Predict the structure.
Amino acid sequence: MSETSSPAGTRLELCAIDDVAPGSALKVEAGDLTLAVFNVDGTFYVTDDQCTHGPGSLSEGFLDDCVIECDFHQGQFDVRTGEPVLAPCTVPVRTYPVTLENEKVYITV
Ligand code: FES
């Protein structure tokens, strides 16, 4: 894992692209963050792993297209925006800008 800083923010290396199969998610710890990396048909999205509703881990949920269902109470979020799309989730989950480079997934924080 690597970390570089610039005026635009700190770039964190999360994983290899191949670590996350299409339609799946991976939990990654980077810096002091615990994140969920989603591969939606080759497009990558990253959110906080912790569900905003409770103790659920979004990387352990069920990904259907761009919607992740938390496996704790079955609330749902759009991984593109972090917006809740199904109760009981009402608070958006944080999302991060993703870049892909050299077969790796990075975010800027
Ligand atoms: S903890 Fe995720 S829906 Fe309740």
Notes: The mean pLDDT is 95. The chain has no helices and twelve strands. The two ends are 15 Å apart (CA to CA).
